[in-house]
Amino acid sequence: MSYVKNATNTLEKVLLCPPTYFEFEPINVITDDWLRKGQKADKSACMREHAEFVQAYKENGVQVELMDPHPGLTYEVFSRDFGGCVADGFVMGNFREPCRKGETAEYEAKMKKLGIPNVARCTAGAFEGGDFWMLDEYTIAHGVIARTDWDGYRNVERQMHEHGYMMYGVPCSRKNLHLDMCFNIVAENTAVVCRDALPDDFISMLERRHFTLINVPQEGVYRHYCNLQCLGNGKVISFTNNKDVNRQMKALGLDVITVDLVEILKGGGGPHCMTFPLKRAE
After folding, report:
1. Please, what is the end-to-end C-alpha distance for the chain in angstroms?
2. Alpha-carbon separation of residue 176 from 21, 27, 151, 227 (angstroms)
3. Distance of CA 79 to CAs 16, 27, 188, 201, Å?
4. From the CA atom positions of the chain, what is the Rg in Å?
5. How many helices (H) and strands (E) does the chain have?
6. Cα separations (Å) of 207 from 12, 15, 148, 194, 195?
7. CB 139 within 8 A of CB 165
8. Got the DSSP string for 87-116?
9. What is the pLDDT of residue 121?
10. What number of other Cβ atoms are within 10 A of residue 1's Cβ?
């Protein structure tokens, strides 16, 4: 059984979590700003947005598995972050923020119920799935930013090496939160990036791999312009207000599916953060 062997094959099955208990937490620069403005999470709007998000997947042939949200786990909606999925099974990360640590047991129980084996586990440091990217079937780029540290990275790197994977650490300024906030593969050899946020050697590696790069400014990172989800077959999920990036992706021939996400984004995560891929086509 092969689960996820790259970032671009046709997405067949995902794990999502409704934002039933979503509350703003002061754990990233985006939400910090909204909290300073006196804002609270609009739960009814978040639930409406997430239902539209689920529907977008279903309408595009993607099977959706839903978590049963757990009271007190305010950021469980961002299902990507508990770990990563590769061809052999899933990698269990280790959350850095205390308010998220309770998600580990919930997601691990769900993966066990789904019959997906655990192939690696972060047992030292911090390691989160928002930093996890498969550049190809054997190469994983992983951010070392705000939520993954070098201890966590090296801990998982050793384990993944035993499974035949090479890992490439991508350090960025902490304000960028996760790698998927400033780098996102949207189709084969096509990525949305913030060049100003990423190391020169990483950009050079992408160019050597003949990636077409859509660039966004640093301010665009905080507006989730990079935080998209590739469905494969030339399709990508974005959001309505991501107008310039959507236009550029369409100009490259991509089919851009937009969801009207506004309130959930204020929590510091977008379509990619909310999606844990369980199965891509061979």
Report:
1. 10
2. 25, 12, 19, 12
3. 6, 16, 23, 29
4. 17
5. 7, 15
6. 29, 31, 25, 14, 12
7. yes
8. SS-EEE-B-SSGGGTTHHHHHHHHHHHHTP
9. 98
10. 9
SS3 231: strand
User: What values do phi and psi take at 62, rounded to 5?
Assistant: -100, 125
Look up residue 199 and give its two tokens.
């190391």
The CB density around residue 167, as the number of other CB atoms within 10 Å, is 17
Question: What six digits make up the tokens of 19?
Answer: 């934002």
Residuewise pLDDT in 10s, the chain (282 residues):
789 999 999 999 999 999 999 999 887 888 878 778 888 889 999 999 999 999 999 999 999 999 999 999 999 999 999 999 999 999 999 999 999 999 999 999 999 999 999 999 999 999 999 999 999 999 999 999 999 999 999 999 999 999 999 999 999 999 999 999 999 999 999 999 999 999 999 999 999 999 999 999 999 999 999 999 999 999 999 999 999 999 999 999 999 999 999 999 999 999 999 999 999 999
Which amino acid, 194? Answer: C
Residues with Cβ within 8 Å of residue 88, at least 6 apart in sequence = 2, 3, 117, 119, 163
Nearest in space to 17 (alpha carbons), one of 92, 148, 111, 86: 111
DSSP state of 197: T
Q: How many CB atoms lie within 10 A of CB 124?
A: 12
State phi, psi for 218 to the nearest 5 degrees.
-55, -40
